[in-house]
Amino acid sequence: MTDTSRRPGIFAIRDVRSLITETAEEGHGLKKAVGATHLTAMGVGAIIGTGIFVVIGKGAGIAGPAVILSFVLAAVACAFSALSYAELASSIPVAGSAYTYTYATLGEVVAWIIGWDLILEYGVSVAAIAVGWGGNLNAFLDAAFGFALPDAIAKSPSEGGVVNLPAVVVVLAITFLLVRGVTESARVNLVMVAVKLVVLTFFIVVAFANFSTDNFQPFAPAGVNGVTTAAAIIFFAYIGFDAVSTGSEEARRPDRDLPLAIIGSLVICTVFYVLTAVGAIGIASPEQMEGSDAPLATALDEGAGMDWAAAILALGAVVAITSVVLVIMYGQTRIFFAMCRDGLMPQRLAQVNQRYGTPARLTIVLGLLISVLAALVPLGAIVELVNIGTLFAFIVVNIGVIILRRTRPEMPRPYRVPWSPVLPLIGVAFAIYLMTDLPWETWLRFAAWLALGVVIYALYGYRNSRVRSEPEATPGWAKEPEQ
């Protein structure tokens, strides 16, 4: 029984039924408007983008041709966490993803920390992807028309420019689309996903038609360490599958569609990634790709001498990366929305626009903040921060599956992770292993971000949380487990 005579503490746990009931509140409920096809397209749309069109060059520079193994290792590491996401998303169809799952398993303060972490992961990820979008736009303009935007408006100050204007434009355009509605956004994303798969198929066919084994020697110049270090960077290419879970509240049939979309999108993207990596090494050296913001276009242009094909690929990359910005930013708004609805962030931002059925005010605020970040921060420093934030979230989600199996064994689970707790624990181990390969500077920045989050929670989140300010609205909160 809930102890209503005592003020809930920082480890108060939200009951799953209470979380689901909260989604029907007037002015705070999102419209159920997306099905399995759109959800799977969201997963593919979020995963295939900057990772293969941009980050593959960084990975090849570290691991050489063995970057192919890095893609496989990163995919395997993600697979175990994807299973855990599938179970929790189908069981708790509420916006917020790992933040909400943590609130139902580990308590409020841990949920806040993971939510604060996800704000970093998604917000910074959108900025990084937007920077990659600008690089591919310039690659397309150069390949197709023989000119490019001047550095002053195409690069951040640390890269020799003044402002990254293309990055700002794409973020603001996506913000407008997200404000208009989830149905419109899902339809646009579906079209862009079709384009990106056609483009990658085109690249694979052209690459294998001009394939050479010359660039595969030496295969692993940096050894096993090079493969794992590159995998920690390339991991950035796979993080999109968890964005599917942020749309669980808007799914028509979350019990069936969410596991299918999460796992299916990861499998589809892994196949395309491995084939693309093999083809890229077959026509261009790692050194050629490493020095480019658009390595696949460079591979076709310099490696195969096919500038006309490079122009097509660069245009496809622009479309493809636009869909990543769309889906990841969508996920960011839904996580922030859930935190605002719970009172840990300003509740007025959780108001749903009655005309569009979206948290319009919140979306606009986040869009403006991310556009500033995209305009001024270079890609290199951001990617590793996104990776460490994602890996941290994966650890918590895997642990959440184990805990919820013990504390709520009777809860309906449309999808169940097989061989639990073994597979979730393997997911935790993989995440920790990849985290150890990230630079100490990344750990320092991440620790500073979490410390700032703890301060904000102490000053604002704890006092304004609905389990304290509106206990009648959250009857399902549970006291912390007794020691």
From TrEMBL:
Alphabetized Pfam families for the sequence: AA_permease_2
InterPro entries cross-referenced by the UniProt entry: AA/rel_permease1
Transmembrane stretches, start-end: 36-56, 63-86, 98-119, 126-149, 161-179, 191-213, 219-239, 260-284, 308-331, 362-382, 388-405, 417-436, 442-460
Ranges in a coiled coil: none
Gene3D superfamilies the UniProt entry points to: Amino acid/polyamine transporter I
GO molecular function, one term: amino acid transmembrane transporter activity
Localisation: Membrane
Alphabetic keyword roster: Membrane, Transmembrane, Transmembrane helix
Cellular-component GO terms for this entry: membrane
Membrane topology (UniProt): Multi-pass membrane protein
Protein name: Amino acid permease
